[in-house]
Specification:
single chain; alpha/beta; Rossmann fold; 2 domains; six-stranded mixed sheet; three-stranded antiparallel sheet; about 40% helix; about 15% strand; SCAI; Protein SCAI; transcription corepressor activity
Length: about 425
């Protein structure tokens, strides 16, 4: 019986990774019944542990949906947030857009966040964001519903030149890794990069703050993010004033800037990563989460970071900060049309703006372009929302995007305010006088 329960638990993990959420929900119900039968028949000593496993899975599934999208009969719609042929906004391609995302390292270490097995909800969301929707898999969960897609018209797919569709980028998932593990897997991804390939590092971790009163070395003296709470037994107790052994500092990434590097830092100490220099002249871009969340929204952090949710499902994040817990599927689709308009317009503005060359070099890749324009959506939304006051409650990026040409562009502001009106949440945002 215990073997059977373990099989169910492992199968649920596999289904999560494959985004088979409908099957996951069915398996959770079956596991619940199996645990109840196991407990009543054997009265085992490990009943408490199995109930904890079940509660962990249920909490993860509940947090994963973030916002409920409902059919007319009030049954939930299973959405997919993977990259599909209709998802990535179109661009006017130019010669600088030469990079493709090939290697990805996803790291999670948030103390107070929903997780199952060795997968936090932030890690799961980023994993799904960086996967292509299987085109030939009849089993992939889409519920035959258009609610999980954006009706973009990006042109032929596959490309006109007859090149085969790229496979998904290669990924490493590390939950609470030690510093040495982070370096090993970063080096592995770095080694495997082909010509014109880019490496993406995603960090969802608690901040590791500096106690240095007079920082001199910007790569280490400002702190970083904690990848693990483990202690290294070989070195014993850390000396007073010594640096945290399992903190990833900005300086630790310097060697990996020899090749194109795209970094996403979701942490309360994210901003220290804006100091990474380009010693080797290679493309580099860093997206950093807000350092602080408004007090009324801090309870949401347990169900995953707001910044990562914006990068994963912009409309779900928008609804969450407007206290919209669920939407009918037809209303969701209408709101998605506003998000579609925003991303297309943001993409056009970025290409035509005088932005740093690194941004354009990454912009040719479908995944990275989507992350950048969703970052723009996040920044504009939080700038207009009444609860988010001050620069520390908004994301930032390095190199920075042009303020006037992109982030403060009136066309983007108008789309966000129209979207707010669509979900009857206009009062959550600044009015025209306050904007002026």
């Amino acid at each position: 019986m215990v073997k059977k329960l373990r099989y169910y638990a492992r199968f649920i993990v596999v289904c999560l990774l494959l985004n088979k959420m409908k099957l996951v929900r069915e398996l959770v119900q079956e596991l619940d019944a199996q645990i109840a039968d196991y407990a009543s028949t054997y009265e085992p000593e490990d009943q408490v542990e199995w109930n904890l496993v079940l509660d962990e899975i249920k909490g993860f599934v509940k947090a994963e949906s973030a916002v409920g999208v409902l059919h007319a009969d009030s049954n939930p719609v299973i959405l997919t947030h993977r990259l599909g042929p209709l998802t990535s906004p179109p661009i006017e391609r130019s010669s600088p857009m030469c990079l493709t995302l090939q290697e990805i390292l996803i790291i999670g270490n948030c103390a107070d966040q929903v997780k199952f097995s060795e997968l936090s909800v932030d890690m799961f969301r980023m994993l799904q964001t960086l996967e292509r929707e299987p085109r030939d898999d009849p089993q992939h969960i889409h519920d035959a519903s258009p609610a999980g897609r954006l009706p973009f018209r990006p042109g032929p797919y596959p490309p006109e030149n007859g090149m085969p569709r790229r496979d998904n980028p290669h990924k490493y998932l590390l939950y609470k890794p030690t510093y040495s593990q982070v370096q090993v897997f970063l080096a592995s991804g770095f080694k495997e990069l082909p010509a014109n390939g880019a490496l993406l590092l995603y960090l969802s971790a608690d901040g590791c703050f500096s106690t240095v009163k007079h920082p001199e070395e910007m790569g280490y003296d400002l702190g970083g993010v904690s990848t693990s709470s483990k202690r290294d037994p070989e070195h014993g107790k850390r000396p007073s004033g010594g640096k945290e052994p399992h903190c990833l500092y900005p300086g630790d990434l310097y060697p990996f800037t020899r090749k194109p590097l795209f970094v996403i830092v979701d942490s309360d100490n994210s901003y220290v990563f804006q100091q990474i220099p380009r010693y080797f002249g290679q493309p580099l871009m860093v997206l950093m989460s807000p350092q602080e969340t408004p007090s009324t929204l801090r309870d949401l952090r347990h169900g995953g970071s707001l910044f990562t949710l914006f990068l994963h499902s912009p409309l779900a994040a928008f609804c969450l900060i407007c206290n919209v817990g669920s939407l009918a599927v037809h209303h969701w689709e209408r709101c998605q049309s506003y998000v579609e308009r925003f991303l297309i317009e943001a993409s056009r503005l970025v290409v035509r703006s005088r932005c740093e060359s690194s941004i354009l070099q990454f912009f040719g890749d479908d995944f990275l372009r989507l992350l950048v324009v969703r970052y723009v959506f996040c920044d504009v939304v939080l700038h207009l929302h009444r609860l988010f006051r001050g620069r520390h409650q908004r994301p930032c990026c390095h190199p920075s995007l042009p303020e006037a040409d992109v982030l403060q562009h009136p066309a983007l502001h108008h789309i966000v305010l129209d979207l707010a009106a669509c979900i009857d949440a206009r009062d959550h945002f600044l009015d025209s006088n306050e904007l002026a």
